[in-house]
């Protein structure tokens, strides 16, 4: 068990119609002029943006809006947001959406608060931010957990690079409003991709090759079982409030640090491998993770098959005998079968990518930062390892 620090300063307001309290929360945290940042036109067509703007008007708050955030949020939109906030003297950002909108908001917040730095330098680790505009969230997609995390991932569409922006406590949202009803209109593919993302945020922290805390393992295993159970319900009952609520809260808990207490931070190789798929081919993040995970797991499990066997037994109720490898492989297959049951891909081909050897080599080259870094801690992976995993996943 490793030493750890657990810090979750975000205020959560959970339940039906809670988004109508956005204005009072913004005033509580000192907002005077707000940027309402959101994604596609669905937020407008559904009437959600009108409800929010009316609520802000009632509280006497000024606001401007900026939509157009897409999955794998773009650096160009971040730059547009920075310029707009500076011009309009915005002092608070309200992210209305899922992880892409929240991540874009965080990057905008960094850019406005650090005017002497280029925001992309924070993603390239060439500079470290010294502040961020305060951010609030109205969550409409349960997936990334960005509403309670210090993480932000941005895609540079010119270089085809998808990189994590600076990970600091400055960008942690002041509050997050979680109304499960706002997720009812999501397409099934987005809903289930979000469920995979939640699972992967837990599994990245769970699969470490060190002694872990029993309580953390138990929380992680229960969270995974809860997501798997309710993801299957949502395949048949997309308007099931209880299932939506369980998934939404699991998404926040999976990425606020709770499931990483005592695990040393996690592995994160699958996320790094998927980031290249997202940056180059603009795939949906959760689906990309599902397509790559089984190949990663089969490539690394022999380093510590007992850990994978524990996963198989405690998450999927697979009996564990003396052959840890056999149980481990059964657990990997069980997770892939779950992905299939919710119509998620388990290969790059099923993801819609039929890649040549050269394209796979190029992905590994980019993921390894031109063969200058390794990824993962369960098993450290160099560029050749990455290439083999991509080939297995093909």
UniProtKB/TrEMBL annotation:
The record ties this protein, via Gene3D superfamilies, to: 3.40.50.1970, Dehydroquinate synthase-like - alpha domain
Indicate the segments forming the Fe-containing alcohol dehydrogenase-like C-terminal domain, all copies.
194-391
Taken from the UniProt entry, a GO cellular component term is: cytosol
What EC number(s) would the UniProt record show? 1.1.1.-
Task: Name the coiled-coil region(s).
Answer: none
Q: Which GO terms describe its molecular function?
A: alcohol dehydrogenase (NADP+) activity; butanol dehydrogenase (NAD+) activity; metal ion binding; methylglyoxal reductase (NADPH) (acetol producing) activity
The keyword Oxidoreductase belongs to this UniProt entry's keyword annotation = yes
What domain of life?
Bacteria
User: Alcohol dehydrogenase iron-type/glycerol dehydrogenase GldA domain: from which residue to which, for each copy?
Assistant: 9-180
Keywords recorded for this protein, A-Z: Oxidoreductase
Keyword Oxidoreductase in the entry? The reply is yes
A Pfam family found in this protein is Fe-ADH
Q: What is this protein called?
A: NADH-dependent butanol dehydrogenase A
Q: Which organism is it from?
A: Blautia wexlerae
Taxonomic placement:
Bacteria, Bacillati, Bacillota, Clostridia, Lachnospirales
């Amino acid at each position: 068990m490793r030493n750890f620090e657990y810090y979750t300063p975000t205020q959560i307001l959970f339940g039906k119609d809670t988004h109508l309290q956005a204005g009072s929360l913004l005033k509580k945290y000192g907002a005077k002029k707000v940027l309402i940042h959101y994604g596609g036109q669905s937020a407008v067509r559904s009437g959600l943006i009108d409800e929010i703007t009316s609520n802000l008007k009632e509280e006497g708050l000024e606001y401007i809006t900026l939509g157009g955030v897409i999955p794998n949020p773009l650096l160009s939109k971040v730059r547009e947001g920075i310029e707009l906030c500076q011009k309009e003297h915005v002092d608070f950002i309200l992210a209305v959406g899922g992880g892409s909108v929240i991540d874009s908001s965080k990057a905008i917040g960094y850019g406005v608060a650090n005017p002497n730095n280029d925001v992309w330098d924070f993603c390239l680790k060439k500079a470290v931010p010294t502040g961020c505009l305060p951010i609030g969230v109205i969550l409409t997609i349960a997936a990334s957990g960005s509403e309670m995390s210090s993480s932000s991932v941005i895609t540079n569409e010119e270089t085809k690079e998808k990189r994590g922006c600076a990970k600091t406590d400055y960008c942690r949202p002041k509050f997050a409003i979680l109304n499960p009803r706002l997720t009812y209109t999501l397409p099934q593919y987005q809903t289930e991709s979000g469920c995979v993302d939640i699972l992967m945020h837990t599994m990245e922290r769970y699969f470490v090759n060190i002694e872990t805390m029993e309580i953390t393992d138990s929380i992680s295993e229960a969270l995974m079982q809860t997501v798997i159970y309710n993801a299957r319900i949502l395949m048949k009952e997309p308007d099931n409030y209880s299932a939506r609520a369980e998934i939404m809260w699991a998404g926040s808990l999976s990425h606020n640090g709770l499931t990483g207490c005592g695990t040393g931070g996690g592995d994160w190789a699958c996320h790094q491998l998927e980031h290249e798929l997202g940056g180059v081919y603009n795939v949906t993040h959760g689906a990309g993770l599902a397509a790559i995970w089984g190949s990663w797991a089969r490539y690394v499990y022999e380093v510590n098959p007992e850990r994978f066997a524990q996963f198989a037994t405690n998450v999927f109720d697979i009996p564990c005998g003396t052959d840890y490898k056999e149980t481990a492989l059964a657990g990997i297959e069980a997770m892939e079968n779950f992905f299939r049951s919710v119509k998620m891909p388990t290969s790059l081909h099923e993801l819609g990518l039929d890649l040549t050897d050269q394209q796979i080599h190029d992905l590994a080259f980019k993921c390894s930062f031109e063969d200058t870094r390794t990824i993962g801690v369960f098993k450290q992976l160099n560029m050749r390892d990455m290439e083999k995993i991509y080939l297995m996943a093909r």
